[in-house]
Design a protein that fits this description.
This is Hsp70 family protein. The chain is of the alpha+beta class and about 500 residues long. It has three domains: about 290 residues, Nucleotidyltransferase, domain 5; about 70 residues, Actin, Chain A, domain 4 (Alpha-Beta Complex); about 130 residues, Substrate Binding Domain Of DNAk, Chain A, domain 1. It has nine helices and 28 strands. A six-stranded mixed β-sheet has the order 19-18-13-14-15-20. Strands 5-2-1-11-12 form a five-stranded mixed β-sheet. A four-stranded antiparallel β-sheet has the order 22-21-24-25, with no helix packed on it. Helix 3 links the parallel strand 11 and strand 12. The protein binds adenosine-5'-triphosphate and magnesium ion. Adenosine-5'-triphosphate (ATP) binds next to helix 5 and helix 6.
Length: about 500
């Protein structure tokens, strides 16, 4: 059996490979009802973490619960020590996710798709996930008992699902596909070039903290305003209830719906759908803005003639406003997936299935660079090392090497990952610290680099230094700095 698992902000879906078909695994809740998904909810019941359907039941009985905890990994500060609050207690996010994935593994085993029996298991991360997010997603899956063979970017997997289902729309003239993935907590867009079953990501962009949850928030704000209240007027439980009610109402909207009825605490209010759409339009515009570089700028009459389709996936693209606004811009080439929430999981199962022959050439999606201190620590200079369009190896590793003569006694390297560079060549916006190395170029200081009394000074004729940047097939970077004269080496990685 080959398995694809899409761990989502609101729901996880899994699919298996079955002789060229890729059915979604049906899971059973505590009442015996079947669902295509496992809810991304954790609750604290009798001092124990419970997950998924059991967490929904516990939360209904008043247990403290948290949803959308996958979002915590997108934070630039996220690491193994990051905590999340659950009622009276705090837990490391990675521990909660590992425990959640173990519960998902058990649910899959009960459903007859035991991950322990899978030959290949492929998982996914948002396309613009940073290194720590990639590393810990993989690590949590492994600790939870999944034998992960590969990790892909979510929209790339959705691209597989598209080409598998609609191979004929890709022609020799129209070889490109844009995947627009609006999930519960993230937005990703990828430009994919397709040649038969070979796929290559040409570029990928997104927003790590925009998704369906934000549409629920917009609707909740309108409901509060109509009730003459603010969020501070509601208790935690009423606020959670309101957000849940907003999500359910949003998911039920059809193009014909005019008004949405909601309970705000004890008030009954009604929100006009037109008002909701007007308030939510900036969210959709933010996605268009984020993906505009894929189209060469939205305002220019870009040559879309090579694009076979703009493929809408992710549960939140089910909101009628989303295809409407996209069709206003891009016309008939906008296609909604018949399985917006399952497309990624199906694509992962296609990737796990060696018989499918599907392959992908992925990109890093985030730039990687280093701030170096110069002039005795008085200046800070940014050096971009890996561009976001740098290819990720399908097997083995990809190595980028820099060599130079050191001009200081010590070098302070602060590594960051970034989404964009400003015109001056400095990272801007979404910048995530990766780690730092204080490297002693002066041989007398080697092994003593942690001495707080040391400071950076200029030196002539320093040793020859090599920086090695190693990218693994999961898009995770490791840095090594070596003094080639003495062989002294320091390394920075996320493990
Ligand atoms: N019919 C619908 N109309 C509007 N929104 C919907 C509909 N169905 C689901 N959603 C929304 O889609 C979102 C979940 O989408 P999806 O299942 O693709 O996300 P996820 O995989 O959990 O998240 P992510 O990919 O961001 O980690 C939720 O915000 C949900 O309310
Ligand atoms: Mg998703």
């Amino acid at each position: 059996m080959d398995l694809g698992v899409d761990f989502g902000t609101t729901r996880s879906l899994s699919a298996v490979a079955d002789r060229g078909n890729y059915p979604v695994v049906g899971l059973t809740d505590d009442l015996g009802d079947a669902h295509d998904w496992f809810p991304s909810v954790v609750a604290l019941a009798s001092g124990r973490l419970v997950h998924g359907f059991a967490a929904l039941v516990a939360a209904e009985h008043g247990a403290p619960s948290v949803r959308s905890f996958k979002r915590a990994m997108a934070s630039p500060e996220f690491g193994p020590d990051t905590l999340m609050r659950l009622g009276p207690a705090e837990f490391p996010v990675v521990m909660v996710i590992e425990s959640h994935l173990r519960a998902l593994r058990d649910a899959l085993a009960t459903a007859g798709a035991d991950p322990a029996r899978a030959t290949n298991t492929v998982i996914a991360v948002p396309a613009h996930a940073h290194g720590a997010q990639r590393f810990w997603t993989l690590e949590c899956f492994r600790r939870a008992g999944f034998d992960v063979t590969a990790m892909m970017n979510e929209p790339s997997a959705a691209g597989f699902e598209y080409t598998h289902r609609q191979p004929r729309t890709i022609s020799s003239r129209r070889t490109r596909l844009i995947v627009y993935d609006l999930g519960g907590g993230t937005f990703d867009a990828s430009l994919v070039s397709v040649d038969g079953t070979s796929h290559e990501v040409l570029d990928s962009l997104g927003l790590n903290s925009l998704g369906g949850d934000d549409f629920d928030g917009v609707l909740a704000e309108l409901a509060l305003t109509n009730a003459g209240l603010t969020a501070a007027d509601l208790g935690d439980t009423d606020r959670d209830q309101l957000l849940i009610a907003c999500r359910e109402a949003k998911e039920r909207l059809s193009p014909q719906t005019r008004r949405i009825a909601l309970d705000v605490g004890t008030h009954e209010v009604s929100v006009r759908v037109d008002d909701f759409y007007a308030a939510a339009t900036p969210l959709v515009e933010a996605t268009l803005e984020a993906m505009s570089p894929l189209l060469g700028g939205l305002d220019s009459a870009t040559d879309l003639s090579e694009v076979a389709g703009l493929y809408l996936v992710g549960g939140a693209s089910g909101l009628p406003l989303v295809p409407r606004l996209l069709r206003e811009r891009f016309g008939r080439r906008v296609h909604r997936s018949p399985y917006p929430a399952a497309s990624t999981a199906i694509g992962l199962a296609i990737a796990a299935d060696r018989q499918s022959g599907f392959s992908i050439n992925e990109q890093l999606s985030r730039g990687f660079g280093v701030f170096r201190e110069g002039e005795g620590g008085r200046t800070l200079h940014f050096d971009p090392i890996l561009e976001r369009t740098e290819h990720v190896p399908q097997t083995g590793e990809r190595v980028v090497v820099r060599r130079y003569r050191a001009a200081h006694n010590l070098g302070l390297f602060r590594f960051v990952e970034y989404a964009q560079l400003d015109p001056a060549g400095n990272p801007r916006g979404d910048v995530v610290p990766f780690g730092q190395i204080l490297f002693p170029f002066d041989t007398d200081l080697q092994g003593r680099e942690n001495d707080p009394a040391l400071h950076i000074e200029r030196r002539d004729a320093g040793p020859e230094i090599e920086e090695r940047y190693v990218i693994d097939p999961n898009g995770i970077v490791t840095v090594q700095i070596t003094d080639l004269d003495t062989g002294y080496r320091l390394e920075e990685s996320l493990s």
